[in-house]
Specification:
- The protein is of the alpha+beta class.
- 20% of the residues lie in helices and 45% in strands.
- Strand 6 and strand 7 form a beta hairpin.
Amino acid sequence: MSARIDYVELPGGDLPATKDFYTSAFGWSFVDYGPTYAGFADAGLDGGLAAGEAAVTTVPLVILRADALDAARARVEAAGGEITAPTYAFPGGRRFQFRDPAGNELAVWGE
């Protein structure tokens, strides 16, 4: 049972301005998933910009992918991780967030 880094979510702030910045500076393209979320492409790793209600942290959020989400959550809890956001559904799957012993917040998603 493993989970691997699959996605990075960045705070989007002023979403149009942030998208313009990354397009101009690095040539990234975006797919809008509503007014507060845009996925980015051409960045070397899948990810997105979250603004408004979609922004769950004020720092970048590393997201792991697990084949068995409930089992991954049980392992995180058994290892001493603190669940910071319970499992919830989103378009494409479900995810939860946790804090590790060093205070890093990550998320785990699965279908």
